[in-house]
TrEMBL record:
Organism (species): Janibacter alittae
Keyword Signal attached: yes
InterPro entries: Cell_wall_metabolism_enzyme, Dup_hybrid_motif, M23ase_b-sheet_dom
Recorded GO MF terms: hydrolase activity
Organism placement in taxonomy: Bacteria, Bacillati, Actinomycetota, Actinomycetes, Micrococcales
Protein name per the record: M23 family metallopeptidase
Amino acid sequence: MDPWIAGAQLAWRYRRIVLAALVVFAVATWLFLLTVVAAATGGFSAPEEGATGRDASITCVGAPSKELSLSQEQAANAAKIIAVAQRLKVSPRGQVVAIATALQESSLLNLNHGDRDSLGLFQQRPSQGWGSPAQVRDVVKSTEAFFGRATHTDNRGLLDVQGWESMPVTVAAQTVQASAFPEAYARHEATSVAIVETASGETGLCEDVSVGGSGKWRAPLPADALVPGSPFGIRLHPITGVARMHEGTDFAAPLGTPLHAMSSGKVVHAGPMGGYGNLVIVDHDGGITTRYAHMSQVDVRPGQTVKAGQRIGAVGSTGQSTGAHLHLEVRVREEAVNPLPWLQGKGLDLNGKGS
């Protein structure tokens, strides 16, 4: 048989594999070239004040620096993640979550090592049911597993999480990964958006939010329970002894003291989350969220709308805690800010005065 005819027949037989490989190669090449240009021209940088047009839509946490660039390996892995997501009909928002997760877990590198038996782009652990070592280092299979659409594992993935589309990127990623550092994914959101928008041609994946929120703000605890504890800032962790950022303010309060939402909003998380223990996150719009950690009891559910002063649970000592207290956080576009001065700007003084 003529070798050209044989080659054509072989190509036709494996046309789907060939087509998929060409798509991955094209997207990876495009990403690589674009990030090289970005490194040289300052592309993918945070928008300057007063910027308008497409760049103004990039308002995510952790805006990438002007030195952002992807290696060929990173670009190829990003392209494979996006190709799998598109085949599974995962929205660009879901692609952002996956890329942010891979950036945090492995820097978009298909690692052959990690914490304990963690491997691959998403640092999935064979001992936790994510598949064999070979499967978790297979980019296609591990990406399918991350989304919850793999045939080699029954572990829950992103698409199995009810309401993931409305969660902050870091919360959505944490529901799948159960990381010891649940906030780390947020810092990669803008970079992930830049990668996905570049590959897909989509725009506006991050909302152009106006920081501030609206409505009345009230104290989360009764006035006599607002006893200041560990403040916002760098500290030695009381359990691990490691110096790290304390991203909120603690208030020592008796076990079971009622906890209230500080302003009206929507509950986006209600339940366990790593060292936070039982955690409630309320989205107040305008890029503002509040977090209430270590709760002994949770009285709300995700998706529920709450009003200022409404009970959401009770003070506890769950998670990494040495005693009953409220760990309170205020986040602006998922970046933790010092709660006390920020709330004073909202007319709420928590320095023992309540509201």
